[in-house]
Write a structure and sequence with these properties.
By secondary structure, this protein is α+β, with helices and mostly antiparallel strands. The protein is built from 7 helices and 5 strands, in the order βααββαβααβαα. The protein has helices at about 20-25, 30-40, 70-80, 100-105, 115-130, 140-150, 155, and strands spanning about 5-10, 50-55, 60-65, 95, 135. The N and C termini lie far apart (about 45 Å).
């Protein structure tokens, strides 16, 4: 029978200490090998909190399933800021470009409800509104209208 351990680790910076080590210790698996595998798999999310599922079978073999950080964390990471606006309607913490939103939509492809890049980007723009982030210098609402008008078709089809 397999055991499943779910942890939240800092991308590319997991250590044998908590939360990974204590959770895996009783299972008798090589913790260093697991940590190395987690760091390799989460390197793209450097410093962000990433959900990781570790499945250990009876023979002490393991597999790693890496989730994606929350959309808000990916947006803030792209902007290089640590937190969103405290007053999202009147305060702006940054301006994200369509190319950055397309990149985030690819990272979140499996978790978002939309099927096309255009719709996934519009879904992500909804998160920008709650963070106090503008899109290409426009309010999130205006950016969605611009996408609907076809102003960013070239970037959304790349």
């Amino acid at each position: 029978m397999s055991s499943v351990v779910e942890v939240l680790v800092s991308g590319g910076r997991a250590t044998p200490g908590p939360p990974v080590g204590p959770a895996l210790g009783p299972l008798g698996v090589n913790i260093k090998a697991v940590v190395d595998e987690i760091n390799k798999a989460t390197n793209a999310y450097d410093g962000m909190q990433v959900p990781v599922k570790i499945v250990v079978d009876d023979a002490k073999n393991f597999t790693i399933e890496v989730g994606t950080p929350p959309t808000s964390a990916l947006i803030l990471s792209e902007l290089g800021v640590s937190k969103g606006a405290s007053l999202p309607g009147s305060e702006v913490v940054g301006d994200v470009k369509i190319d950055q939103l397309v990149k985030i939509s690819e990272m979140k492809r499996e978790k978002l409800l939309s099927y096309t890049t255009r719709d996934r980007v519009k879904e992500i723009i909804g998160t920008c509104k709650t963070l106090g982030v503008t899109v290409e210098g426009m309010s999130p609402k205006e950016a969605v209208k611009a996408i609907d008008r076809g102003e960013f078709d070239k970037a959304l089809q790349a």
